[in-house]
Amino acid sequence: MPSGQEQVAPSPSFGMVLYRIVVAALLLSALVLVACILVGKLSGAGVESYLQASGLCFSLVGALALGHGLGAETRSAHDKATTCYVMALMNYSIAYNVFLVHGLARALVNP
User: Fold this and answer.
1) Pure H helices in the chain
2) What pLDDT, in 10s, does the model give residues 29-44?
3) Dihedral of the alpha carbons of 85, 89, 94, 97, in degrees to the nearest 10
4) What integer is the mean pLDDT of 15-23?
5) What is the rounded distance in angstroms from the CA atom of residue 52 to the CA atom of residue 15?
6) Do residues 48 and 101 make contact, with C-beta atoms less than 8 angstroms apart?
7) Vertex 29: Cα angle to 71 and 96 (nearest 5)
8) In the prediction, which pLDDT does 45 show?
9) 3 to each of 7, 9, 10, 46, how far by Cα in Å?
10) What was the pLDDT predicted at 95?
11) Dihedral Cα 62, 22, 86, 35, nearest 10 deg
12) 59 within 8 A of 91, measured Cβ to Cβ
């Protein structure tokens, strides 16, 4: 190998990147759910309103990140767009998991 060239580390595959995003989203979802349950139990107001509020917040942040990603893509800032798309995907995943748990909790309480 010539001395002017440095060895480049292989980039991770798409599947590996997607796997990391999914694992991070699941861990953050679990953290959000635990926080909602703790706050709901400590306040005595119940968990439902906290689950709804956190799901709505993560949906809104996901929409904002998606909008920024689309804007960055039109300006040909592809690295910024990629980061924004990953943030949108993570926030939408967290919101989906929160709404899923909220629906399951409602189904268990009110069969």
Assistant:
1) 14-43, 48-74, 78-109
2) 999 999 998 998 899 8
3) 170
4) 87
5) 31
6) no
7) 60
8) 83
9) 10, 17, 19, 65
10) 93
11) 40
12) yes
Cβ contacts of residue 22 below 8 Å, gap of 6+?
93
**Residue type at 111 in one-letter notation:** P
Tokens for 82, please give them: 């990629």
Cα distances (Å, whole numbers) of residue 26 to 11, 67, 81, 82, 96: 24, 23, 22, 20, 11
Encode pLDDT of 53-101 as tens digits. Answer: 999 999 999 999 999 999 999 999 989 999 999 999 999 999 999 999 8
pLDDT value of residue 3: 58
Query: How far apart (Å, rounded) are the C-alpha atoms in residues 21 and 83?
Result: 11
Dihedral class, residue 25 (left if φ above 0, else alpha if ψ from -120 to 50, else beta) = alpha
User: Distance from first CA to last CA of the chain, Å, rounded?
Assistant: 69
